[in-house]
Write a structure and sequence with these properties.
Largest sheet: 2 strands, antiparallel
Strand order of the largest sheet: 1-2
Helix content: over 70%
Number of helices: 1
Strand content: under 5%
């Protein structure tokens, strides 16, 4: 065989190899394009589910904000009620002290009080004693 034949044969083989490579690349491109289209379709189907989940998340967030606002309001109310209770307790303690002073003052004036602790006939200072129908002390 002549050199020209070998050259022609080599050129034909190179052209065939290049054609096969081009065909394989084209098929690869078509497959990739098809796969991309499939992925986009799946993503499109998931959009509505994602929007639904976002709506649920927004509703949960709104409920959480509402609950937090209610909790803050309850905490403020509890603080106010606690302050009122402390004020009432202070007034009650002051009133108790004034009442005890009055009892002590009455005990100083009462000739029936016999011991130095200011109790009448063995009664505790917190329980007032009144004379009964036969002039014997009874507890109120």
């Amino acid at each position: 065989m002549d050199t020209a034949v070998w050259i022609i044969l080599a050129v034909v083989i190179v052209i065939v190899v290049l054609a096969v490579i081009a065909l394989l690349l084209r098929q690869r491109t078509v497959r990739r394009r098809s796969k991309a289209h499939e992925i986009r379709e799946n993503a499109t189907l998931q959009v509505s589910e994602v929007r639904h989940r976002e709506a649920i998340a927004e509703e949960a967030d709104a409920r959480a904000r509402k609950a937090q606002a209610e909790a803050d309001a309850k905490a403020a109310e509890a603080k106010q009620l606690n302050e009122e209770a402390q004020t009432h307790q202070g007034h009650a303690a002051k009133s108790r002290t004034e009442v005890e002073r009055e009892f002590a003052r009455a005990d100083k004036l009462d000739p029936d009080v016999k011991n130095d602790r200011g109790t009448r006939n063995g009664a505790s200072p917190e329980v007032p004693v009144e004379p009964g129908p036969d002039d014997t002390p009874t507890h109120r």
